Amino acid sequence: MAGGSGERFWPMSRHATPKHMLPIVGRGAMITQTVERLKGLIPPERVLILTQKYQIKRLRELCPQLPKKNFFAEPMRRDTAAAAALAGLLIEKRDPNATFVVLPSDAYIKDAAAYRKTLKIALEAASKNDLIVTVGMKPTRPATNYGYLKTGKPTKGLNGVLNVERFVEKPDLSTAKKYLKQGGYYWNGGVFAWSVPTLKAAFKKHCPALSKPFSRLAQAKNFEAELQKVFPKLDRISVDYAVMEKADNIAMVPATFDWDDVGEWTSTARHHAKDENGNTLCAQAVLEASKNNIVYSGNKKHLIALCGVKNLIVVHTPDATLVCDKAHAGHLKELLKKVPETYR
User: Fold this and answer.
1) Phi-psi category of 39—alpha, beta or left, where left has phi over 0 and alpha has psi -120 to 50?
2) 182 and 331, same structural domain?
3) How far apart are CA 43 and CA 53, in angstroms?
4) Would you say residue 157 has pLDDT above 90?
5) Do residues 121 and 219 both lie within one domain?
6) Which of 254, 287, 311 is the last residue of a domain?
7) Host domain of residue 303
8) Same structural domain, 282 and 335
9) Do 195 and 239 fall into the same domain?
10) Are residues 245 and 105 in the same domain?
11) Residues 6 or more apart in contact with residue 159 via CB below 8 angstroms
12) Does 205 share its domain with 318?
C-alpha cells in the first residue's frame, strides 16, 4: 500500500512526493527499501503496488525492477479496507486461490533476513488454513500511537503462530504502560496475510458495505470504468475497523525483526547519529547552546543556524520551512489545514 499523503512529514513530504517516496531514514526511498526487502521471498513479477494516479509515475521510476502493469492506481483514497479489498480483487484475477500479504510501504526495517523469515511463516499459515495472519511487533515503549494485539495460546498445529484474542485501539499512556508490564500485547504493524477466499469471506461476513460493490465489480465487463463509478461511493474505513476487530479467525506471528513505522519527524531521531548535545542533524548546520533538536534539509549547501534553542524540529525545503516544537509534532495535520494548497 503506497497511496498515503505523508502529511506528518511536511514540508519535505507533499501529495505528489509523500513519505514513502523519500529517503527519510535508511538508504533510498522508503518504498524502494520495502521492495528490496522482499527479494528472495516474492519474485518481482508478483509484487503489486497500490497507489494514487498522481504518484504512479514516480513510483515506477523508484522501483524499475517491477513490471509497469504491477502498479495500480486507486481512483481516490478510501482508507485501508477498500485498498485491501481492491488488492484482493486484482490478485484474484491472476489466481483465485492465491495467498498474499498486505504491507505498508514505509516502515523501516534493518534485518531483512528475519523479516522474510517471519513473512514466510505468516504466508504458509494463511495458505493452509482459513486464517487471517498478522505480524505483531514486540513493544519497546508504551506507545500510544499504535493499536495493540492481545495474544492467547499458540495456534494448534502451527509452529510459531499465536491466536489473537482481540484487537485493541490506540490506548492512553497509562493503559499502554499496563500492556507493556503485563506482556502478551504486540503492536499492530498493519501487515496481514490471507488467501483470496479467506479475504472475500471476511469482508462478506463483517463488511458487506464493501463486499457487495466489489462482488459486482468482479463481474463487470469494463472493469476500469466500473471502478471509477464504484470507488468514490465506498465507505472510508480502516481494515482494522472493518474486519480485524470483528473476525474470530485471526492469528499472529511475533516479529523477530526490528521495526519502526517512522510515523512523524520525532521518529527520525531514533535512526540517525546525534551530536554531543543530542541534536539530530541531517543538514548543513551550525548550533550554539542548542540541545535535542532535529534539523533536516534537502539542500546540503543551505546553512541552517540554531542558537539558544532546544527540542525543535527544523525542516528546510526550497519553498517552505517548518519550525516546530517536538511536543507538537503530532499536530502537523492541523497545521496543514491552514497551509495553502500550493505548498501542500
Assistant:
1) beta
2) no
3) 24
4) no
5) yes
6) 254
7) 265-343
8) yes
9) yes
10) yes
11) none
12) no
Burial 170-188 (b: 16+ CB within 10 A, else e): ebeeebbeebeeeeebbbb
pLDDT confidence of residue 222: 93
Looking from the CA of 210 toward its CB, the CA atoms found within 13 Å total: 28
Residue keyed to cell 491472476 = 94
DSSP code of residue 171: P
Residue type, 140: T
Domain count, the chain: 2
Contact 6, 20 (CB under 8 A): yes
Which domain CATH number covers 171?
3.90.550.10
Measured CA distances, 52 to 64, 83, 216, 238, 294 (Å): 18, 11, 22, 17, 30
The dihedral built from the CA positions of residue 26, 27, 32 and 37, taken in this order, carries a sign that is negative
Looking at the DSSP bridge assignments, the partners of residue 305 are: 286
- Single out the residue of 15, 101, 115, 110 nearest to residue 58, CA to CA: 15
For the full predicted model, state whether its pTM sits above 0.90: yes
Question: Which residue blocks in the chain are alpha helix, DSSP H?
Answer: 30-37, 56-62, 79-94, 112-128, 173-182, 196-206, 208-218, 223-230, 239, 332-336
Asked if 284 and 234 sit in the same domain, the reply is no
On the question of a cis peptide bond just before residue 139, with omega within 30 degrees of 0, the verdict is: no
pLDDT tens digit string along 64-101? 999 999 999 999 989 999 999 999 999 999 999 999 99
Spatial contact of 210 and 79, defined as CB atoms under 8 Å apart = no
